[in-house]
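FORM 7B - TANDEM STRUCTURE REPORT

SECTION 1: FIRST PROTEIN
SEQUENCE AND TOKENS:
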Amino acid sequence: MYESQTLNAFIFDHCNKSMDNAVSAERYPLWKRACPGLNDIGFIRLGMLRCISLVDSGRHFLQAAEEVHEEQCPLSTYFKSLKSPRRVRMLEAVEQQSYDIYSETLSSHGIDYLKSFPELNDYTVLAADGHFIDHACHTEKGRNGKVYAAGFIGSVAMIIKSVGGSVAKIKNSLLPT
């Protein structure tokens, strides 16, 4: 039987399990590194909290994270970590493990949300969601002198079927735009 836990506790447990699985899946992961300012689990948790928070900007999020979730992160550390290529590689490894954990959980409970739509069996079905926010007043301009809104699109495979009918896996993704 499952015991009740807070959303923060669930996210923390899931992030840790996904990270452990990602580290175990590679012999010497080049993306693994100890960052004293903001460790990888903290970075993932902040990213997830950012997606589910009702905030207007990154700075607003950091203020809310400290006040509501008791998560403290220096402003410069958070924004620099968002641009890190190493963090992107780490997220790619962890997201595959996260997807596998959720797929296994859904399968073990017999949950198949698209089962009643057999006409989709020959198609790849993806679910996606995203958000775009206006750029901050301090955002640097690009090479062309323009500033664009920040945005992310997340997607997850609902069903992947090959022509022969065997089910294949595809990872979910978080795509900065």
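SECTION 2: SECOND PROTEIN
SEQUENCE AND TOKENS:
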Amino acid sequence: MDELTTLAVQASRGEPSVMASFIRATQPQVYSLCAYLVDKDSAEDLAQETYLRIFRALPDFRRESSARTWLLSITRRVCMDELRRRIRRRRRETLVPEFSAEFDTELPGPPEADDDQAEIRELLTQLPEDRRSAFVLTQILGLSYAEAGDICGCPPGTIGSRVARARADLIQALERGTSRRTEMEARPDAMD
């Protein structure tokens, strides 16, 4: 049993200091996954929601997989729930725009143009959810294809295919962005 799984088992007994240690040990990955799957502005709230779900479910943790895999599976589900909620809200806004505008309190801010992380996040949001999850889990968080497969509920080979497609999509998006910038710089009247 790895160190994090041991910590999870100890945290399931409800001791506050062990629970705090579990959070400290896992928070960077939980926050990163939330930031990349949804957005940086929502990551902290989503991480908190993740830990609420985790501590409610911790007594039922069966150790069939590592605590890290289990934790990131829950994190991914929290993120997907948030994305589905946002999609439903957008649909409501489309159907009844004047009513939705009255109650809209969440306005996402645009990413900063010179921030590489913001640009990466923006590119990742353009990927289909299954490719984005596979790419973030393996290429950013460093999980193996097998671990990512456990989290996403698919075989490691499927994760490999999704990562390859995500890379191709990202390269294509970067090439499109580069060619547009080059076009704009080449036209002297475009700078006016």
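SECTION 3: OBSERVATIONS ON SECOND PROTEIN
Confidence is low (pLDDT under 50) at residues 97-114.
The chain is about 75% helix and 0% strand.

SECTION 4: SIGNATURE
Preparer initials: ____
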